[in-house]
Write a sequence for this structure.
């Protein structure tokens, strides 16, 4: 009740707000039952209150959908606005270039959702980083409500079902691993498709529910649920003989890796639903890559999905863009009234904080991406691919972002180049009327479930006879991922019989505070030419100045 009550969340004092946050974190994370709690109560306060929450897809989807679908008549509805805003009400997402750190009352180590090496905490983080990561990221996935939101995404479900059950000849008598099994449904499908052994790995207490689902469907003799981070999983020793686990012939006959550990690369197929908003958000790809390198047979093993593609396109979405601008303007007007009232009634000048308040409001309302379920009519040009991943060979470096230099948080960016045509009323063949304006960009992704295409595996691994495909683009209608929309502060108008060219680059990089959250930098410029002109670089009628915008993906 407190977390959704406007008065409480916006007006309580610091101590009460801390207590509310602690209650919310404790109720969802089960820290005390995971032996992941920090060493003191003050540490828990720091972890729960001072670190930006990493909200899962299922947490934010409902709020984003409410935001994007509400009608003009409901735009002043405080309850809906509050459901949208309470996502960041305790601690707004930081966009500064320096890491924000918080120490507890005893001066202990910093809490952050990243390890000292900037990796996700489950890989090489200390216990405090892992506790923070669990509370702010994993815990929400332990709730059946959030699992249900993903399970009722029928585009998602149909694609995975087709990929697994539709290729039963590939799964027959195979060893399968489901990374992040959640409710266990993918693992159950793998068993039903004929797998001889399925390892369903789940970090959260959802593992208990997964075991119940497996048992209720009579598959517990095939599927074993392993609770823990996949980076720390060791396959049961008894399974080697019981299920005939074997390495590939070309693997080390001694079954020992150079670091002295036992070679566990006995899995034939890894399945996982790891994708976040705009594909990379949540950074689960890191865990999947490490699971692949640890458990999958190097050249004969299969990854499902096998390939992933990220794309963007210019869009018209003026209603929502203007609404964001209006909310930003209203927030600033409210601040001015607040500052004047505080000065007149209480004798303290708060105007010195106006620029900082304005920055926070702009980051939230103007420079944050928005979840959307766009119709195809919003698209103003063919999409541009900004990143492609082959899941059999991609690396943790690939998971760090888009358009970055190796080991760096910036780079030359992934290029895009769009031509957006302004139609005249005389263009009856095109429906007539003027398109646009350009309100911003939308980003989404697709994944394929198909045969290996890499040199090492394409002639060795089994072929996928019935490939499957999943898109989160506007053409698919609703998916719980939706599209991420990056609205421009000011729209770019389109003129009749003129073509507007938008040329630039996109970079996507992890935030300094969290290895699971990302920022997107767009650098671009616009120009106009007559549509009849065949020369894209000549006959330019207008050339705008270069722009650079950095957005957070909440």
């Amino acid at each position: 009740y407190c977390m959704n009550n406007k008065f409480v969340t916006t007006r309580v004092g610091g101590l009460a707000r801390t207590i509310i946050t602690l209650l919310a974190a404790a109720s969802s994370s089960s820290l005390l039952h995971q032996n992941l709690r920090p060493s003191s109560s003050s540490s828990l306060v720091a972890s729960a209150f001072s670190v930006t929450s990493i909200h899962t897809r299922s947490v934010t989807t409902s709020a984003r959908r409410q935001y994007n679908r509400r009608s003009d008549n409901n735009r002043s509805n405080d309850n809906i606005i509050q459901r949208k805003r309470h996502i960041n009400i305790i601690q707004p997402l930081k966009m500064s270039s320096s890491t924000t750190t918080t120490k507890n009352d005893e001066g202990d180590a910093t809490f952050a959702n990243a390890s000292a090496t900037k990796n996700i905490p489950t890989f090489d983080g200390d216990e405090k980083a892992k506790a923070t990561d669990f509370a702010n990221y994993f815990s929400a996935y332990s709730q059946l409500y959030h699992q249900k939101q993903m399970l009722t995404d029928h585009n998602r479900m149909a694609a995975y079902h087709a990929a697994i059950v539709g290729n039963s000849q590939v799964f027959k008598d195979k060893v399968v691993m489901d990374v992040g099994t959640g409710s266990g449904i993918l693992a159950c499908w793998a068993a039903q498709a004929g797998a001889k052994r399925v390892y369903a790995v789940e970090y959260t207490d959802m593992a208990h529910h997964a075991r119940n689902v497996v048992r209720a469907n009579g598959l517990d003799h095939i599927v074993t649920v392993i609770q823990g981070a996949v980076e720390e999983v060791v396959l049961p020793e008894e399974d080697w003989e019981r299920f005939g686990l074997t390495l590939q012939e070309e693997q080390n006959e001694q079954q020992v890796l150079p670091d002295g550990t036992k070679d566990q690369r006995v899995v034939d197929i890894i399945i996982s639903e790891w994708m976040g908003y705009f594909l990379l958000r949540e950074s689960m790809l890191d865990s999947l890559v490490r699971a692949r390198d640890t458990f999958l047979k190097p050249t004969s093993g299969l990854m499902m999905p096998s390939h992933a593609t990220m794309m963007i396109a210019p869009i018209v979405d003026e209603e929502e863009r203007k609404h964001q601008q209006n909310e930003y303007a209203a927030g600033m007007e409210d601040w001015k009234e607040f500052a004047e009232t505080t000065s007149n009634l209480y004798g303290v000048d708060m105007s010195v904080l106006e620029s900082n308040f304005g920055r926070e409001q702009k980051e939230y309302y103007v420079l944050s991406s928005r979840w959307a379920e766009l119709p195809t009519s919003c698209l103003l040009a063919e999409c541009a691919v900004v990143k492609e991943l082959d899941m059999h060979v991609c690396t943790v470096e690939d998971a760090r972002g888009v358009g970055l230099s190796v080991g760096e948080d910036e780079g030359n960016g992934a290029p895009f180049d769009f031509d957006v045509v302004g139609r005249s009323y005389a263009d009856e063949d095109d429906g007539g009327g003027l398109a646009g304006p350009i309100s911003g960009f939308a980003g989404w992704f697709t994944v394929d479930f198909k045969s290996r295409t890499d040199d090492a595996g394409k002639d060795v691994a089994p072929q996928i006879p019935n490939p499957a495909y999943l898109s989160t683009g506007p053409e698919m209608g609703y998916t719980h991922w939706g599209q991420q929309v990056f609205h421009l502060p000011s729209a770019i108008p389109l003129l009749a019989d003129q073509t507007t060219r938008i040329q630039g680059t996109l970079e996507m990089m992890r935030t300094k505070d969290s290895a699971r959250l990302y920022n997107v930098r767009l650098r671009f410029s616009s120009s106009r030419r007559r549509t009849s002109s065949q020369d894209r670089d000549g006959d330019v009628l207008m050339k705008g100045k270069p722009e650079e915008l950095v957005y957070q993906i909440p």
